[in-house]
Write a structure and sequence with these properties.
Helix content is about 50%, strand content about 5%. By secondary structure, it is mainly alpha-helical. It is globular, with a radius of gyration of 22 Å.
């Protein structure tokens, strides 16, 4: 009765909801399956990380299993499941990225959507369509917020909560009126500030975990008839006025070239901040030419945000190394395509890498800076011991829509990540097959079983 009595006002929020509720083409649903697969791989790779262990202790006491909490519906409700998985996608910096919104939608949208889907009788394509709608919602809000570049707010948390709420509301079968209530409650819980990246914390993981859980709660409140502010985004005391006063509100409803934001979202092949990836790609291109002439001097020309985030010439921790242009370029030139181990442990004290890091100089490129965030680029100039200078540019890093990773690439990344988390290959293959079969799955049963069959040693967190 509540939903029939209230009418959705004509405002940008209602137009945004209408855009998100449009029919999702099959190819977009199939793309959503790839993002779910990629996010799951990132989550399982981080299953035994410091943040996973600490959150497991906070949730379940010493010895609790965060991954079992995340993916076993019998253990907890959807909110708790979303909190558990929402903390892990960004730990190793391999999560997907939508450039225009400066936002990692998968960390919140996939966590919330999957938590709800595991506890409801739904078709496989319904989950994928809900994810596509969640990506659409969060990235449109993020693009409006990021129109002037970075602010002190962490978009994946502050804007990601709306996408989580949209996905959860869609899976709950809410109409436009109910979705408006869900977004209203999501706005009340939007949170996340960038101080977390300036200090050694797990707070970045908390931001995405909170946003995923808050999105589920928002949908549950809306379904229960809990009214939310209908102008939560654009009202005079709303989200943008309070958090992003310089936002471009036109981005909320503007027609986009790709049709769906999820198709404009980049995948990350390397376990490091996305701002390092163009430089990594450039270094990999130059590496063969340097085989007989070790670098004497290395210059990286890139945009300002990459330098702001990733100027760390002497990283002393894995987190710092993942945000170090110097280390990422040194690894790519010395070892080739970077792997998880290249940013951890012995790699940080490797004298060869340390010597290369010391040769790296960063320079602001005005042209690349002007193109940010639409394009993330880097130029690399290397002078060898032979005195010859070699240079190249990467304007579209591997994984961007203009230079895409194939399904085979993403499957290889998924298998590498699940193996890093301790999952047996057979279990990994079953899980991948279950995810990629979702477009035609009558229900989520195969996915539930595949998640339940992941190896217990991988799930044990002491």
């Amino acid at each position: 009765m509540y939903a029939k009595m209230r009418k959705l006002p004509d405002n940008p929020e209602s137009e945004l909801i209408g855009i998100c509720r449009r029919s999702v083409p099959r190819e977009v649903a199939e793309r959503a399956a790839l993002h779910l697969l990629d996010w799951l791989g990132c989550v399982f790779a981080a299953g035994q990380s410091g943040p996973a262990r600490a959150l497991a202790r906070a949730q379940a006491g010493s010895g609790g299993s965060l991954l079992a909490t995340a993916f076993d519906p019998a253990r907890c409700d959807a909110q708790t499941g979303a909190l558990a998985s929402g903390a892990l996608g960004n730990v190793l910096e391999m999560d997907d990225l939508h450039r225009a919104s400066l936002l990692h939608a998968g960390d919140t949208v996939c966590a919330a959507g999957l938590a709800v889907a595991l506890r409801r009788p739904i078709r496989g394509d319904a989950l994928l369509k809900a994810l596509a709608r969640g990506y659409e919602c969060s990235t449109r809000i993020g693009a409006a917020a990021a129109s002037g570049g970075y602010t002190t707010f962490y978009n994946s948390g502050t804007c990601g909560v709306f996408g989580a709420a949209m996905a959860a509301a869609d899976l709950a079968g809410l109409d436009a009126d109910g979705m408006a209530d869900a977004l209203g409650q999501a706005g009340m819980q939007a949170a996340g500030i960038w101080q977390c990246r300036l200090e050694p914390t797990y707070s970045k993981q908390l931001a995405t975990a909170h946003a995923a859980r808050a999105g589920v709660l928002s949908a549950e409140l809306a379904a229960a008839g809990f009214p939310g502010a209908r102008h939560i985004l654009t009202g005079e005391m709303g989200f943008f006025a309070s958090y992003y006063p310089n936002a471009d509100l036109g981005a909320l409803t503007r027609t986009t070239q790709g049709g769906w934001a999820i198709t404009e979202t980049s995948f990350k092949p390397f376990p490091a901040c996305r701002h390092t990836h163009p430089a990594i790609s450039a270094a990999l291109e130059l590496r063969p030419a340097l085989a007989d002439s070790p670098p004497r001097a290395i210059e990286v020309a890139t945009y300002g945000a990459a330098i702001d985030f990733c100027d760390q010439p002497h990283p002393e921790s894995a987190d710092a190394a993942r945000f170090s242009l110097q280390h990422a370029v040194a690894v790519a030139l010395d070892r080739g395509a970077p792997a998880i181990a290249d940013f951890e442990g012995a790699a940080l004290s490797d004298p060869r890498l340390a010597a290369l890091r010391d040769k790296v100089r960063l320079r602001l490129s005005p042209g690349m800076d002007a193109a940010f965030p639409t394009r993330l680029g880097a130029g690399l100039t290397v002078t060898g011991d032979d005195g010859e200078t070699r240079e190249t540019r990467c304007l579209n890093a591997w994984g961007d829509p203009e230079n895409p990773m194939t399904q085979a690439d993403l499957l290889a990344k998924f298998r590498t990540n699940t193996a890093h988390g301790g999952m047996a290959q057979e279990a990994s293959d079953r899980l991948a097959q279950a995810v990629l079969s979702l477009p035609d799955a009558a229900d989520a049963g195969p996915l539930k079983r595949a998640l339940a069959e992941t190896q217990p040693p991988m799930m044990e967190i002491a």
